[in-house]
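note to self — DONT lose this again. spent like an hour looking for the file last time. sequence + predicted structure for the chain T wanted, 160 res
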Amino acid sequence: MLETLEEYALIAEIISAIAIIISLVFVGVQIKANTKATQASTFHEIAALDINILLNFGNSKELARIITAFRDNPDSLTEEEQNHGFYLFGAEVRHVENLFLQNENKMLSAKNWKSRKALVDGVVLSAGFGALLNHPFSKFFDGSFIEYGRNRRKKFDIKD
């Protein structure tokens, strides 16, 4: 009888181990599905922000002119336009900072980051970003993003 109880106990342990393995596999599948859903939601929100920014800049020839001039050559603007452009460009920088941080936190898939990295790099390599780096407001942006921007600029030998 003791031998039979030991056999039953061993069988019960094996069944328990198999059940644990199955439940861990199930949890892994659920986490993977949740990650994809989170990434899809994040990408949707980013796309909505992209559209909103583009529509806002496109609604006014003057805003489009100022943001473009600030991004490309801030010194070409009057002092008043530079102030206006700085805030417009700051909103664009905040948007690409968000993209950068979403990628750093693995909230974007590699495919989604690849499609957005050109936008991020376009902003950080611009003359407007150089002006932002020399402005006291640069401290209001995430340090790792600012460091990324500085490193990208160094790589392309662009002065701040």
